[in-house]
Amino acid sequence: MKLKKFTAPTTREALQKLRAELGEDAIILSTKQTAAGTEVLAASSHDLDAVTEKPAQQAAPASWTRADRAQLAQATERQSAERQSTERAPTAAEKVAQQVAAQRDVLINRTFAPAPAPAPVLTPQPTPIAAAREFANDDMLSEVAKRRSMAASESMAQENTAVLEEIRQMRQLLKDQMAMMTWRDTLEKNPQRGELWNLLTQSGFSPLFARTVAEKLPSGLNDNQVQDWVTNVLKKNLNVIPGDKDVVETGGTFALVGPTGVGKTTTTAKLAARCVVKYGADSLGLITTDSYRIGAQDQLRIYGKILGVQVYTAQTHADLLQLRNSMQRKRLILIDTVGMGQRDSRVAEQTKILTDSHVKRILLLNATSQPETLDDVVRHYKSTGLSGAIVSKLDEAIKIGGVLDVVMRHKLALHYIATGQRVPEDLFPANPQVLVHRALRSRSGQAFQTSSEELKWKMAQVSTTGI
User: Where is this region: Disordered (predicted)?
Assistant: First the structure.
């Protein structure tokens, strides 16, 4: 019988050498730690079978030490007992062999971290299973340390983010405080600015817009001069399309877009009537894409029948392109679109179809809507640019400062204003003088007016964000 020793820095490497030389059926007799690393004593299963047929003294070379001979004797006795057990109960032997093979596979396949070489002292050596448990414990400790390090890093990152957010808030707070101090100083030097701010906010303009205008008010003006000054400022900031360059005069292909209920179909009929009266029915083309509302197409067809113009329906992009190409000789082509809320996902799809078809879009703004809602409408419909806007339902609005504020801040070109349901009478070219006069003379009801004390508190709260 040939017993072989395998020495390597780690148990894994020693077992790999053992398996490479003696095969998968090798029997591990003992393992121990030495100064050179791990030492494994093993023999092949064939040699161990031959040993059981001969005396143990003949299997041991003369050069072996007493400890080696004792280990050989113990191995021989264990092998003989296993063979007898196998002869008596084959099933039990198979289970033992499977356990030994499983233990060997665990030791070979598991990845162990290299262990430092221990001091060369004569101590009882651990078994392979004990060594495996020791390495497994080391791996578990390393994983725990890694998780603790990651948790500490995440906690530190969260703390840094919180500190930066607090610094940002403090910076904004200081900025707002400085702005309020400057505003109060301005009001003390020129009280008329406070009165102008109150006039604009009561007319429906946003606090930020009112403050921006009031801060530029010159000193030393009387009340009439202040009124003239603010009127001129508002008129200059309103971008109004001249009468000789409106939709009917310039011609082209226009689609009226906007949320539901703003008056797109009625306004389309008003524009169509103006075109027919001035240039004849042959100069106009009418298209509708509104196939959602019940009776929407019938409403426009009734107007078209009165004007002597046929109304066509386009339900797809291809239909729109075909109709537009067939109406190339028309002076003006008007497209009545389906009403969609500004946050409807179909708005982007509609905008893309009209843009790809080279159709200019005019946005209708309801003068009775809240300024915040109008601002949201413009931001969603303005994604690829607008050719202008039309203010509708001006006759129903108590304040129009909000809609004029939105038009000025977004720099929209104002084409027309609609003041009622009559076709075509209640449609007028936008006039800045009329709009500004109407905006500044608007007054709220008693329940919505601000007292002098409330006005001071409100002005003190106005910051650069317009809140």
Answer: 52-97
